[in-house]
Sequence to fold (279 residues):
Amino acid sequence: MSERAGPAGVAPLINAAVDVLSAGDPAQKTAAAFAAADLMNDAAASPAGTARRSPPDRPARPDRPALVAPGGAPRRRLGSAKGRAALLHAVAHIEFNAIDLAFDMAARFADAVAAEGLDAAAFVRDWIRIGAEEAYHFGLIQTRLAAHEAAYGDLPAHDGLWEAAEATAHDVAARLAIAPMILEARGLDVTPGMIERLEAVGDHDSAAALKIIYRDEIGHVACGRRWFHAICKARSEEPAAAFRAMKDRYFAGALKPPFNHAARAQAGLERNLYEESVS
Ligand SMILES: [Fe+2]
Ligand SMILES: [Fe+2]
Fold:
């Protein structure tokens, strides 16, 4: 385990983020996420020393679900409890990965943000707050899975989310472009349709959980966009051109319309930035 000094005062928070990444069991990972947020919100917590740990290359995860190659998932028929459970399971997997993506952002890139002359402590705090929200989202979906007599791990899940993270582990701007500004923004595009389909079959409780997630995710995209722009400014790069370059280099596939322009605008995403990256 390596130890290094870093931006003053953030060492305990970064260590708490590494604890989240090191926990494989879902209950332990979410507990560690809430503990990190509690530590951050505890004004009395003293920044004890500067020695801190590095994030693992790959976060710990449970034995199940089995991970399979992305793509090929059939459209789920939500009229049956089984179909709804499959949809909820896919969402649970996204939220579980989102916990790790947020805490990895905090732990991996604090130094890089400081090196750009930006406020690394604010960056770490933003992503710990978001990581705790992801743990809350995961819990909401676990409850809905249980209502369908299912649990996270019951079905196979795809591994594409962490592949995107590994490809961008060396550059905070690339990670911000791919994770919050492409993947989480895509969530804003597709979630209203899922809510509608769940309402149509009378699963109002699952729809209500997705509405909470949708609201919070607008904030996650906004946060990613804000830091991306700050880094572009520090590097004297034009954001739309930089975003395009990152997407071409690190994102396999095209950005898929139709876009939810209203939600993207709420997150501050400039229309030209993503529309110029469609092809
Ligand atoms: Fe989420
Ligand atoms: Fe999120």
About this structure: The longest helix spans residues 81-115. The CA atoms of residues 58 and 163 lie 10 Å apart. The beta strands are 3-4, 52-53, 67-68, 157-158. The mean pLDDT is 92.
